[in-house]
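We close this part of the discussion by returning to an individual protein. Part of our work consisted of pairing the sequence of a single chain with a tokenised description of its backbone. What the numbers capture is local backbone geometry rather than side-chain detail. The amino acid sequence and the backbone structure tokens for this protein are reproduced below.
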Amino acid sequence: MSYSHDEIAEPPLRWGGGKYRLLQIAGVALAAILFQFYVPRLIKLLDYLELPLLVTLYFPLMRRSPVSGLFIGAGIGLAQDALSELPLGMFGIAKTLIGYLAGSVSQRFDDTNNWVRLVLAFCVFLFHQVLFWAMQRSLRGEMIDLNWERTLVQAVLNALVAVPFFAFLDRVGLGSSSSR
């Protein structure tokens, strides 16, 4: 029995590792966390932007590995926890799950397609907000309501920002085919 090249599934592509790649990920993650912490204090309009979440989504998508997504998400989440007023681990738990989810999803879908990136960013933002809301209610005992209208608007805005942000990261060589 013979197979054509189109019938054989190719293994997922991975981009190079090493200390340089780790420093790039850490630098982009730190810049995103500092952006989210300081910029909305100066420009209130950018308060909706969840840049650390987009970075947590982007790098596991490009690495195509749930395990590396788990570690990237945990690192970004714990760093974000260090700057927040919340107990240590709230963002860590949420971002760890997002990183693992992104790494798993990237093995099933074409993560370089802008429509896929748009839908993933939208869904991941909703999942993050619902998970964070559930953790605040269950772990911290806060009886807060989830504002669905605001959450949906923020999900759309973050998804719209994610596509050009991911394209920028691709262009500077931090993801897609140019650095795999």
User: Anything to note?
Assistant: The chain has seven helices and no strands. The CA atoms of residues 48 and 154 lie 6 Å apart. The radius of gyration is 17 Å. The longest helix spans residues 114-138.
